[in-house]
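QA checklist item 7 of 12: single-chain prediction sanity check.
[x] sequence parsed
[x] length recorded as 278
[x] structure emitted
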Amino acid sequence: MSADDKYPAESGRRRFVKGVVGGAALAGVGATGAVTVNSLTTAAGAGGGPVEAMVIERVSGPAPHGMPQVPIEIDDNGDIMGVWPEIDTETVEGVEVEIAREELGGLEYSQEWFQYCGHESYEGLEPDFDSDNYFKSDANTSYEWQQEQKSEGDRINLSDLDDYEEWGNDIGDTGVGKPAATVWRSEDTDNTLPVILLRSTLVEEAAADNEWLEASTDEGVIAWLNKCTHFCCVPGYKLAPDAPRYNAEDRVYCQCHQSVYDPFSISSALYIARPRPD
């Protein structure tokens, strides 16, 4: 079987979602967004269950749905940080529990977006985890520019991505956007949350007339939790030499099982978030 025949053909779409659909309407969204239900997780327990999240779309391969966006903001110094939802207290089966959840860009954004692949047990996803929420340079980054300019734990600044309209690394097209490999909400923890930042003119243009992207991106910077929803591998953006075989040279490519995600196509995914452990 050839690589081209290994998985069904992708749609070829390169788009941003033009609206947010409610969970009750997801079954009929058609071209508006991607819908998948992950039945391998359970809905029982506090802080878990069905969740609608905005994701970078899975366009091919075995992954069940896209990887969730991390809304971002930029401080007065240009440092980039992830938005963490406001903490609220809810009563579940007579027990009060804290959950991070708020409305953002016309959508309910919550910590449950990230509760898969075992993340639900990570300290960083505890609602009241003490974090400054800045994206810090990952010690294991494969991007040469980042290896040369940043040390482990350094904040990523908007100025680090200034050459986003010219940046390239001999994989795919030049000028599509400039990435940075980071960790988020992972101070002094054994387990880190890997996040990719990407600055692109395509993001800037799309955010000009889209409520969700206007609220969740800034200065052309978009972010997503970089854990493949198939077997929790860590994919790469413009990193793998074999990505062109799967039409993924300018997309996010998971080398383990060839799932491909499009960071320029944001869709709404419905899945079952794992509950946080007590």
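[x] summary fact logged: Residues 33-273 form one domain.
[ ] second reviewer sign-off
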